[in-house]
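Predict the holo structure. Ligand: alpha-L-sorbopyranose.
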Amino acid sequence: MAALRVAIIGTGFMGRMHAHAWRTAPRFFDLPVTPTATLLVGSNAARTALAAAEFGIPESSDDWRSAIARDDIDIVDICTPGHTHAEIALAALAAGKHVLCEKPLANDVAEAEQMAEAAAAATRRGVFSMCGFSYRRTPALALAKQLIDTGRLGEIRHVRAQYLQDWLTSPDAPFTWRLDRERAGSGTLGDIGAHSIDTAQWLTGSTITGVSAMLRTFVTSRPRLDERVGLGGHGSADAPREAVTVDDAAAFTATFADGALGVFEATRMAAGHRNANRIEINGDRGSVAFDFSFMNEVQFHDATLPSHEQGFRRIDATEPEHPYAGAWWPAGHGLGYEHLFTHQAVDFVRAVTEGRTPHPSFEEAAQVQRVLAAVETSAASESRYTPVEGARS
Ligand code: SOE
């Protein structure tokens, strides 16, 4: 294998991010094979050609099927909305392409399980796949994983995860595909709650076995996006409004196979929190706490120290010994969001060339999908919800 040629499907936020990652990975990391994004595929030919020029990708197309049929494409990198993941991934695996697929893996459990089965079969033919739960590639979180795996937290009792964003706080924030159940599968739950579920199961090495959940949609329609303003701006008050068919917020408790208890919250309406992806894990020997707002740091408490020496201490995960960090800048010169995607590309290339299944596998991502489905089922029934007697409404 001399090179790995990548076709990126999707020209939005993630398409742009992945293009950056494929370009950067071989510049900073010593890779056995050089990946190159050679083709960008989008739904509109003219806009995709412009995007390809901007991302530095030599070719563009509006036909993902012909991209997959090409002999000179080795990796299909799926960065499209969720409703297209299964069809593209299944076709790509059948054509013998390695597949990197954005999260959540699919829009429902049936699709996710079909993808996981196809991925397992492809692995036996030397064709690999991975789901893009990119936060696994945060150096500070990877350090937390090392601390947990080496027993520094002992037996895990609590997982406390919150993913707080605020870009939907205003009722005039514009409509996007992420608010359409047909395309996105679910709302905040699948978009960012899925990250917390994946991170929690990955860090603890334990699966979620049950949930008790609530979902809320606070704003039921939004103005159609004014292209001139763009996401993050406001739709004009008199613009036609589109119905929001997904959740704005999710809250649930969870049980883990190893006996731990989990409390999860995800919202895109936590005013003031742009991207606070937080998780804290408590065991009988210590705790770790992480907040993406301070993404280069992890807080570690060692409960085995003499009590007068105990307390959370901040570890700056930018030393050369820390995961991924040695490839970048001198210690203390932090990393950003885009680095996670570069690390993801690096791990994917290394696994593919060494013939190893990269993580998270489609099967791990299908387990996240099962949790998402359980949250929706629980929220719909609210069967374990007990109203407070005598409370005034
Ligand atoms: C939007 O909520 C979003 O871009 C997610 O889709 C990403 O997965 C997350 O990393 C940042 O926020």
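The chain has a mean pLDDT of 95. Residues 13, 165, 191-192, 275 surround alpha-L-sorbopyranose (CB under 6 Å).
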